[in-house]
Structure formats: C-alpha cells, structure tokens
Amino acid sequence: MESRTFILKHVLPVSRVERYWKGLEEGKIYGTRCKSCGASFYPPQADCSFCYSSDVEWVEVGGEGVVECFTRIQRPPQGFEFAGSGYTITVARFGEFKVMGWFKGEGLPKVGMRVKAETGRDESGVWKVYFVPT
Amino acid sequence: MRVGVIGVGCSKFGVRRDVTLQEIAFEAVKEAVVDAGVSREDIELSVVGTAGTRSYELMPAVPVNEYCGFAGRGPLRVEAACATGSAAVYAAYSSIKAGLVDVAIAIGCEKMTEVDTATSLAVGGRGGSYLWEFHQYGTTFPGHYAMHASAHMARYGTTEKQMAMVAVKNHRNAARNPKAHFQKEITLEEALASSYVAYPLRLFDCSPISDGAAAAILASEKKIKELGVDNPVWISGVGYSSDTANLSRRKDYGGLMATVAASRMAYKMAGIDNPLKQLDVASVHDCFTIAEIMAYEDLGFCRKGEGGRFIEDGGSDFGGHIPVNTFGGLKAKGHPLGATGVAMVYEVVKQLREEAGSLQVDLKNYRGLTHNIGGTGHFGWVFVFEV
Ligand SMILES: [Zn+2]
User: Fold this and answer.
1) What domains can you pick out in chain A, each with its CATH number?
2) pTM for the complete prediction?
3) Nearest to B121 by CA among B136, B137, B138, B135
C-alpha cells in the first residue's frame, strides 16, 4: 500500500541574516564577527555562540581562497533534479572564514587549489557561492 | 555500582518490505528478552532510538513501545542521527547509573526503505545545517564523507584501493553473518569498478539503505546478582562528543574530532592507554569506507595518516592487531540508523560471550569497543565493554 501524499515545505526565517542574502544578489559574500570577543562566523549568525553577545559586525569575505576539500555529487538528492549530471561541492578557506560553494571550473578542483568566489543563482533560483580557479 | 548488558537481540537487516517499524523492533526485543532471561515486566524503562523521517511513522516511539509491550514504561525517544542507537544505550545506562531504575531496554529501530533513494538522500543531506548546506548546495551524506576522503587522500596519500579493501573485508565478514544485509563477498576489482556516488566515494564504498532493529537490556549490578544472571557484559567505559553542524566550521577534514574526544573519554574511564593491546575486538562506524580508515586513526589503533596502511596490512582483519567490524560493519551488515549503535553492542556482547560462531575472535583481554558516529562527526559515541 502507499501512504497519503505528505508535502513538507518550510518557511525559512532569514530576517536576522538578511544582509547575507542581499549581499549575494550584489555579488558580495558576508560573514559576521562578534564585536565583543572577536569570534568570526561563516555562515553568518547574529548571535555569538561563545560570549553570548548579539553585537556582531558584517565582514566581507574576499580575496583568494584555498580549497580544503570537495566532492562531486553524482547522485543528486530530491530537490536537485535540475542539476542533471551533478555538481561539485567545495569548501575553501578565505582567511578567517571557510566557505562552502559550487566549483565552476573545468573538471574537479584539487585540495590546495587557489580559487576566487563569485555569487549567482542556480536553476532553481537559490542564491549561492561559486568558486572559480584563479 | 556497575551497569551490565544482560540481553541482546538483533533483527535480520536488509530491505524489509515485509514488516513495519514496530514489527521489526519486536523481532529484536523478543530476542533480547529471551536472551536476558527476564520477563517483560522486569523492564522498568524503555528507550526508543530512531532517527525517523524515512518511515511513514513520524512519531514512532509510542507505536514501537506499545507493540513491544512497554506501554506505561517510557518510552524515552532519542535521536542522534546515525548514532541514535548509542544515545539510546546511554539513556538506559545513565538511568540505571543514577539509581532511577534497575533494568532498562534500549531499542534501536529504523525503516529506511519506505521512501525512494532520492528522498533518502534528501533526508540524510539535511544532517548538518539545512539552510547553509542542503538548501544552498545539495549536500548529501555520502558527499559529507567524500569531502573528508578528498582531504585524507590529498594529505596522507590514502588511495581508492585502500578504501575498497575496507569494503572487501567487511563483505567477507558479513557473508558469514546470517543477519547481514549483504551476505556476499566482493572482490577488490568489483569494488573499484563500481560507479561514483560522490567522488571519490564509489557505490561499494557506501553502506546500503537498510531496515533493521536491535535491542539491549541493561541492568544494575545489584539486580544482576538478584536475577542470577551468569554472563553479564559490563560497560566499563563511556565517552561522547560532538562537533559543529556546519562542515565549513570544522578545523580539519582529515579525521573526526568527535571520535578522538569520545574515545579518550571512554578510554580514561575504562583504564585503557593502549587500545591495540587492551581490546580484543572493535565495532566501528564504517558508514563509508573512509570512515573506517579515519576511525583506526582517531581511535588510536594507528597513527594519523596511517589508516590506509592499517587495512592494507590486515591490521583490522581476523588475526590482525584488532579485528574490526567482525559482523560485517555498517558497510555490509547494513546501517539502519537507529539500530546501528545497538547492533554494535549486540556484536561486541556476542564476541565477549564467545557466541559469535564462525566469526568469533580470540579473546585475551575480554574487552571490546563500540564506536558510533552520528552524521559526519556531528555526534560521537564510544563504549568499552568487558567481562
Ligand atoms: Zn563573542
């Protein structure tokens, strides 16, 4: 037998990190830094998990990043059917921030490869970070 | 006062379209109750560990608890992703340790095949921080470990062949375990010819999507004497840890900090300073082959970066330094999330009671270990058992 259809779709509260999502539309990537203890956060967050201050500043992530790890997803999950033959998830370090993104270069990246970050929308309309080799 | 395991049970793992979640849990519970030689009424607290979502029963603890005859005693429902079973064992253990109850049962159960593979991947891929990972980048559970594999390979020279060797060993063990999902050996060539699921992990590097259940009955030392149980397996070490939800916030991708911290905590409690010399068997978290290689290192079976050589040299095989995943591991025995941690207890208890049949290890110390990870080091649990 089959169960009744059950659709799960959530509303995402993003108002406290709105700057991040606006930033992506402007080609900028932001993290946050706690003004009280200096802890930095990427992904950005409005509260400091370490000293409990909620006084954080927005800091642009920029410059050249170094790839720390990656994978090429060959079996996409539900919700990523649009990605067809797959996509390459990469984590790169940009100074105090480590950033996740999709690799846009030819073939696969390499651990240690230097990249720069761009922003853009995927085919499903979600804004994200892309990496291209420098 | 010590806490001991007095009974264990485990269902047949695999694609179990024949049973509901409560029915598969029943198989394990019944075996554990018979094994313990207690009556259902002796059990004062039931803990139901199930990660959930992939099964149609979205609030599963109560139906499972009722079906197993424990209505009115619990259920305490716990969830710790793939380490759910260990969290259930801990809840039972700590309730007894605190003196609240004398006998408790940890039931780990999972039905994972009631949804299709793409849906299952979409549930597992939400195992970190949804908004910043799955929503934006479509992370999957194989992908999480594949990212660690890419770093491990780059830094330590670990090869796809070494990872495949873990699969071959665990399939060889599972072939002799009638409860395993895959009771079939594979060759290195087959493993290396399988297609990539998430580069650099191939299909044969991944544990299957399995249904299954396991149960463990724990009791206080006082109650064990009172009941006259003659084969208790004592819990002598307990360790737990965790790490960031966001993978991008990890310091390092060459290992799992949660394993290092949890094992050191458990070793300290159990008085272990040389795990290879003091343990006879280990059931470690091999949801992907790279996970077993990292576990050798993070548990202190070998130095960091030498996990690939450890499998290559047969260190984790029967007759090696320490037999690892003697019942086939998550890789081949199967990985029904909630059941996994409890099934590890089942394996180590069977080994320490010398009831493992053709998969029996040689016992010198009469001490074994379970290592259960939730997510990608999002949760880490280690238990040490001894007789
Ligand atoms: Zn702070």
Assistant:
1) 11-61 (no CATH), 62-134 (2.40.50)
2) 0.97
3) B138
